[in-house]
Write a structure and sequence with these properties.
The protein has about 190 residues and is an alpha+beta fold. Helices cover about 30% and strands about 15% of the residues. This is SMI1/KNR4 family protein.
Length: about 190
């Protein structure tokens, strides 16, 4: 077992230390606690990926000054105010359907054909972390091949975040996304050209 491994929530101690530094309690909502996190997971048929899981249980359940531009990091069970009224279609236990970026605005198929696929991308297998406004949402994938990765889903397409996908930032997943925001203050889409 790695010496940096923290038994609580199965997150690496260094990641948790960085998250605690990025989300000071005086600027954040209180954590949910493990019982509430386990209840959420049971109700949705999922296990949240760490270190996000430990963050909402032990550090904070959202932070208005967090990574997303409009509302910061929103609470676990919340959706951004501009999400829309039809929230019952979200099924976290269904696998997130993508493994590579998809710009549906450029997809040659008729919209009627791709509309159900777009709905799956927005509503299946992820929790929403926040919004940058104008229909741009940050998602943490909780089920499927990209479990633990961060995706930006907008009205024109969806793209994964992290070095493996052409971004300059070293980190991936939730910890990398937060580190990018907390330490670099570079634009989110700092793709290497």
């Amino acid at each position: 077992m790695n010496s940096e491994y923290a038994g609580s929530g199965n997150a690496f101690r260094s990641e948790l230390d960085a998250l605690r530094a990025a989300f000071p309690p005086e600027h954040c909502l209180p954590p949910l606690g493990w019982e509430a996190v386990h209840t959420f997971e049971y109700e949705h048929g999922i296990v949240l990926p760490d270190p996000y899981r430990t963050l909402v249980a032990e550090i904070c359940d959202g932070c208005p000054d967090g990574p997303a531009d409009v509302d910061g990091l929103i609470p676990l069970a919340a959706l951004p105010a501009d999400w829309g009224c039809d929230q019952r279609q979200r099924v976290l236990a269904k696998p997130f359907p993508l493994t590579e970026a998809w710009v549906w605005e450029d997809d040659p198929r008729p919209y009627e054909e791709i509309e159900p696929l777009i709905d799956e991308v927005s509503n299946h297998g992820s929790v929403v972390l926040g919004t940058d406004g104008s229909g741009m949402y940050w998602h943490l994938v909780v089920t499927g091949a990209h479990r633990g990765r961060i995706w930006n889903i907008s009205d024109v397409g969806a793209a994964p975040f992290g070095a493996a996908f052409g971004h300059r930032t070293e980190g991936e997943g939730f910890a990398g996304w937060v580190a990018h925001w907390a330490t670099t203050r570079r634009p989110w889409f700092d793709v290497v050209v």
